[in-house]
Amino acid sequence: MENALERLFELTGQIAKEGVSLVPRVVSADAPFVQYQHYPKGDCVAPGNKSRWFYHAHKPEEREAGEHGHFHMFLPLDMFKGIEPYHKPPSKLPNGKKTQGVVHFGALSFGIDGMPISWFTTNYWVTYEYLMPAEAIASRLKLFNMKNAPGDPLVNDWLTAAVQHFQDPIIDNLQKRDALLLEKQEELGRAVYEDKSVEITSRTAFDL
Fold first, then answer.
1. Quick one: which of 126, 117, 105, 127 has its CA closest to 64?
2. Which of 42, 53, 65, 135 has the most CB atoms in a 10 Å sphere around its CB?
3. Of 53, 97, 96, residue with least CA distance to 75
4. Quick check: 46 and 102 in contact, CB under 8 A?
5. CB distance 131 to 87 below 8 Å
6. How many C-beta atoms surround the C-beta of residue 108 within 10 A?
């Protein structure tokens, strides 16, 4: 964790020195920024253990105050053999595409000033993931590693260091997510994994 913090400061210093924050490194200035579109196209997937992320943004009225967009981050389903998910996607998504074997553990929002704002978790329907228990994700979170992934290495290294340093807040967010989903289920008498009124399930500030 301490090494991750040192690495995070080192990479942040390098980014500051070059004068280009993470978002412009992902979203090209040569083309219009399209809401909901994944950046990069097809997501960024590490060749080693298949850790994954993508960046996108919702409509302005659906964004956090001051937010430009956010990074969604995932572990591969292969890491969870023998673990029963709370909920899992169909073989094909609503848009007709084949389901990806991914487990979403959190997202990190960035402001229009290029600075990180907050970590947050989401309900199943937001990413159509294999919704795994917080405890199962917690024991595997340290395996998130974007080493040698396509694109800007500063982005991949920075996200890897950020996740490693912020493991405790991320796990706390996941535990709050599980508690909220259970609370809503008991309140309504049904599962709420596909309930569009339940979207953001926990949030905590990005605070170094």
1. 117
2. 53
3. 53
4. no
5. yes
6. 22
